[in-house]
Amino acid sequence: MEHIHIAIAGLTAVIFFVFGLEHFSREIQKISGERFRKTISRVTTIPVVGVAIGALVTAIIQSSSATSVITISLVNAGVLSFKNSVGIIFGSNIGTTITAQLVAFKLTAFAPAFIILGFGLSLIRSRYSVFGKAIFYFGFVFFSLNLISSSLQPLQNNGALIQFLTEPQNPFYAILFGCLFTALVQSSSVTTGLAIIFTQQGLLGLENAVPLIMGANIGTTATAMIAIFNMDAAAKKTALSHLLFNVGGVLIFLPVLLVFGGKLTGLNMDPAIALANIHLIFNVATSIIFILLIGPFTRLIDMLLGEGKMDFARLPLPTLEKDAEFDSIKAELARQSDNLLAFLQETYSFVTLSIETNYQGIFDAAGKRIEYIDFLKKEYMGYFSRVVTQVHEEEHSRELIRIINQYDYLFQIHDSINDLFNTKKVISEHYIELKSDILLLIRDLSSQTLSMFDDLRKGTSREAMNEIKQSAKELQTHLDEAHKRLLTLMSDPSRRDAGAMTNVFTYSQRLKDKLLNYADIRISTA
Questions:
Q1: Of the listed ranges 98-107, 126-135, 182-191, 251-260, the one predicted with least confidence
Q2: Which CATH architecture has domain 326-525?
Q3: Contact 119, 91 (CB under 8 A)
């Protein structure tokens, strides 16, 4: 009965640990918001910088799984290239060692102070209260580790158990167990934290603990591998590189473990500190080796999964040079607005084509483009807030406001395209089959809307504006006729597709109005 109580108490403490770690990671990501993603997305082509960013981000959020999944999602959205993502993946393993160091040096004793501080901050009305929950869960993580240590303390009197756990066992079994357990709890920090606690208690020997944490490195890739379903080739390559990197590190150091593993008990230091240091050295050394071999490593990934070129060309992110002249800023914004309009036209074509054809591949491609424009929108909002601080002349300020309004209309056009995309989602979720007469209406609507896009891209002359107005008039005529046709079809109870199409034509009407408004402001800005 005593062993059952110990097992229940220990399991409860472990659950607290997993719960605290998950919520701490979530709170940190919530606080950092888009800055967190931008920190990752703006990594340079220098792999060492990627390693440093991956290590820092993971050390802060305490989850290499979260770092890898976010990195993969950025690659999938086209914000980050595969080659730039590899360094971040390498660095994430280094960042996760911070938990082991804190536990090994018994800094968990300060856990109650963090819990009290975090709770107090969350109660007061202050700009610092946003950090309250994060600090609380940080303390909660290490408080739960103390609970684990206390609940397992009675096991120190079980001589048979201690003899079994401290005597050298087959390292392959320990690696496998560490891998499976980490995949189950989806956090290598949980596995390494428990291993160090067990080592501190004298319940686990170094010979068995070291292969356990090596296996944890492999198990932590499970989250990333699950996340890559329905993602493109570049994202799959990032996930595969994470897996091969961690498996490769274990294979490189496994011979060292087999040869020198029996001598680990002779280390003249605290076993828990020794384990934490081995964990750190293992991850740092693995990262250094793979950084030196990053060229052959990425070529191997390319060979296994193909070149994985991006399925659409990405637009350059807006950057503000120090002391940039306003005329150069204006010219660059005008050029990029043309590129953005062309990109929106292509995205609209993908969305309407997915409605017409019902091909999943086209639908997924449209979704990725929409996700990418959402990211671009946030980038431009941040960019404009910085440009405003560098504009001091009144005339320049007026021109900048007109340009910002122009971009605002572009992103409103995107919002209408996104509404059409979400309508397609609803149609698919409810298994609504579109009949041929409805498909013909959509095809004509798409063709005329694309013609309006074409006229918009011809220029900013009065002649071009007249053509745009004529296209808008023809499109409006088609929309009015389509609405009448839909009303007739909706009287038939069997025509579910007619009812579903009302939103398509409503959003198309809004899109037409926004295109016309954009044309007006574009000519006034030119």
A1: 98-107
A2: Up-down Bundle (1.20)
A3: no
